């Protein structure tokens, strides 16, 4: 990072330490005076698909979520489950609902696999931060598209 060439005519998002702290302070002040719904609306930004990416929206059924939860509980064991707060606190989804996700890959990679009849050799699971309280794939889509392109991978993003 220290030895890289100057950015000429390229947009930057460089801010000073002081500016960063001011942004955080202002957001915390805003957040302390608004409802959760208002804060979620404030942080919600939709990012369109890039022309070189392919998006396939999928629904993960409740049965698959239950199977994954059972596998996680089995892997953690009794002590591990107790350390994270119990079995059910993180399984909050309403009955009869599915988890929405997107498969993201480049169109070129998809077309090449279709032509050669090969399966994808690299798959990445992308789960954004925010604890499903802030943000979604809508805000992180471009970043995930870049991951898919640079890795030559298919990314399942939620």
Would you kindly provide a written description of the structure presented here, covering whatever features stand out?
- This protein has 158 residues and is of the alpha+beta class.
- The longest helix is centred in the middle third of the chain and has 22 residues.
- The radius of gyration is 20 Å and the shape is globular.
Poorly predicted regions are: none
- Classify the secondary structure makeup into a structural class: alpha+beta
Distance between the terminal alpha carbons, to the nearest Å? Answer: 30 Å
Tally of DSSP helical segments: 5
Secondary-structure element pattern, one letter each = HHEHEHEHE
Q: For the CA atoms, what is the radius of gyration? A: 20 Å
Binned, the helix content reads 40-55%
Lateral strand order in the biggest sheet: 1-2-4-3
What is the beta-strand fraction?
15-25%
Gross geometry: globular
Mean pLDDT: 83
> Using DSSP, what is the number of strands?
4
Q: Could you describe the largest sheet, including whether it forms a barrel?
A: 4 strands, mixed
Itemize the secondary structure elements and their pairings.
Elements (H helix, E strand, L loop, with lengths): L16 H16 L3 H8 L9 E8 L1 H22 L15 E8 H10 L6 E4 L10 H15 L2 E4 L1
Parallel strand pairs: 3-4
Antiparallel strand pairs: 1-2, 2-4
């Amino acid at each position: 990072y220290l030895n890289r060439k100057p950015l000429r005519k390229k947009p930057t998002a460089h801010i000073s330490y002081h500016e960063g702290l001011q942004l955080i302070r202002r957001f915390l002040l805003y957040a302390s005076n608004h409802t959760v719904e208002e804060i979620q609306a404030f942080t919600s930004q939709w990012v369109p698909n890039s022309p070189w990416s392919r998006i396939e929206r999928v629904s993960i059924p409740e049965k698959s979520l239950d199977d994954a939860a059972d596998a996680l509980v089995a892997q953690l064991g009794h002590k591990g489950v107790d350390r994270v707060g119990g079995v059910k606190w993180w399984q909050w989804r309403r009955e009869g609902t599915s988890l929405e996700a997107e498969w993201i890959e480049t169109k070129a990679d998809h077309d090449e696999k279709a032509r050669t009849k090969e399966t994808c050799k690299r798959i990445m699971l992308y789960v954004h931060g925010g604890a499903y309280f802030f943000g979604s794939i809508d805000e992180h889509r471009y970043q995930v598209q870049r991951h898919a392109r640079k890795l030559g991978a298919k990314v399942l993003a939620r």
